[in-house]
Write a structure and sequence with these properties.
Blueprint lengths: L9 E4 L7 H7 L4 E5 L2 H5 L4 H9 L3 E5 L8 H14 L3 E6 L1 H15 L22 E5 L11 E6 L4 E6 L7 E4 L9 H20 L5 H22 L3 H21 L3 H13 L3 H16 L6 H8 L10 H18 L16 H10 L12 H10 L2
Parallel strand pairs: 1-8, 2-3, 2-4, 4-5, 5-8
Antiparallel strand pairs: 6-7
Helix pairs in contact: 4-5, 6-7, 6-8, 6-10, 7-8, 9-10, 9-13, 10-12, 11-12, 13-14
Amino acid sequence: MANRMILNETSYHGKGAIESVPLEFQKRGFKKAVVITDKDLIEFKVATKVTDLLDKAAIDYEIYDGIVPNPTVENVQTGVDFVKKAQADVIIAIGGGSPIDTAKAIGIIVENPEFSDVVSLEGEVGTKNPSLPILAIPTTSGTAAEVTINYVITDKSKNRKFVCVDPHDIPVVAFIDSEMMMGMPKGLCAATGMDAMTHAIEGFITKGAWEMSDMLHLKAIEIIGRSLRSSVAGEEKGREEMALGQYIAGMGFSNVGLGLVHGMAHPLSAWYNIPHGVACAALLPTVMKYNKDFTGEKYRDIAKVLNVEGAETLTIEEVRDAACAAIDQMSKDVGIPATISELGVKAEDITKIAADALKDVCTPGNPRDTSLEDIIEIYSGLM
């Protein structure tokens, strides 16, 4: 079977990348934009770095800033109505995974109104029409939503997050400007950075991985491994490198899938509103250990790019443990909680949460086939 790669038509990287937003808007012949973001990014003058450029170029736009973390079906539906009323022909999405994911769902439904209930978009449903065009500007260095064909929405009526996979939703242009990420608080930087590392590792060991995706994921692991601590400390170079590392991870995992960490993280966010990156980071070291005997030599490759001592010469069992330990230490170094009970997870909910995790779209990509009993055991061991 052929391997497919879907990426942005165009992407801009580095300081000042957002200065090309008006140029892309104009040369593509757009008439009016809806800027999709959240209230904090407006209040703290992050999104306004982009809207100031739109103003200077006399570009017509309206702002929809009703996005919340772990965006809901209702957020999407309100946004669809807003975009239709504005008669916009392009979306400019500014933010982390939540605004960009919401923008994808909105853009898809505007052009495919038969999915207006939102929940019917779960999985890979085969929409007929491409999304309303999206220009995506990330403000966190983790989700890589600007380069993926995936988005995640929360169904509050059922306490669950659902993953949508659609080649039609990928932003046409991405602007990865580290200056848009410099305002991230330390905790957000750590959580989104560990989410990026989770993307890179899960994408590297997933069942769908192949040589080109391995190339991307290994480079991403290397960059994130050397720069995350620096980024969390607020250092400019670290944030610049993380901006690139998380994007490269997105180029890979978007095309090959993820695994059990994401499958187990999504229910935690749906049930307890735990930030996605925090949920992934809390689970990653333990799930890596769970998977280690089903990964061939890949943990040795991970250990090498993380500069683990003896990575070349350790036995396969030793190097697998060393790779897990390196990720565990990184998680601790950036302040991620070691248990899920610290995040508010209740023991009495675990069986139901585990059932949701088993059904998650990401779970089948895990290199080790799992079961409800195994998932319950992993959650319970992290309490």
